[in-house]
Amino acid sequence: MPAPIRLRELIRTIRTARTQAEEREMIQKECAAIRSSFREEDNTYRCRNVAKLLYMHMLGYPAHFGQLECLKLIASQKFTDKRIGYLGAMLLLDERQDVHLLMTNCIKNDLNHSTQYVQGLALCTLGCMGSSEMCRDLAGEVEKLLKTSNSYLRKKAALCAVHVIRKVPELMEMFLPATKNLLNEKNHGVLHTSVVLLTEMCERSPDMLAHFRKVSLVPQLVRILKNLIMSGYSPEHDVSGISDPFLQVRILRLLRILGRNDDDSSEAMNDILAQVATNTETSKNVGNAILYETVLTIMDIKSESGLRVLAINILGRFLLNNDKNIRYVALTSLLKTVQTDHNAVQRHRSTIVDCLKDLDVSIKRRAMELSFALVNGNNVRGMMKELLYFLDSCEPEFKADCASGIFLAAEKYAPSKRWHIDTIMRVLTTAGSYVRDDAVPNLIQLITNSVEMHAYTVQRLYKAILGDYSQQPLVQVASWCIGEYGDLLVSGQCEEEEPIQVTEDEVLDILESVLISNMSASVTRGYALTAIMKLSTRFTCTVNRIKKVVSIYGSSIDVELQQRAVEYNALFKKYDHMRPALLERMPVMEKATTNGPTEIVQTNGETEPAALETKPPSTGLQPTSQANDLLDLLGGNDITPVIPTAPSSKPASAGGELLDLLGDLNLPGSPVSAPAPQISQPPFLLDGLSSQPLFNDIAAGIPSITAYSKNGLKIDFTFERSNTNPSVTVITIQASNSTELDMTDFVFQAAVPKTFQLQLLSPSSSVIPAFNSGTITQVIKVLNPQKQQLRMRIKLTYNHKGSAMQDLAEVNNFPPQSWQ
Question: In what residue span(s) does the GAE domain sit (predicted)?
Answer without folding.
Answer: 700-815
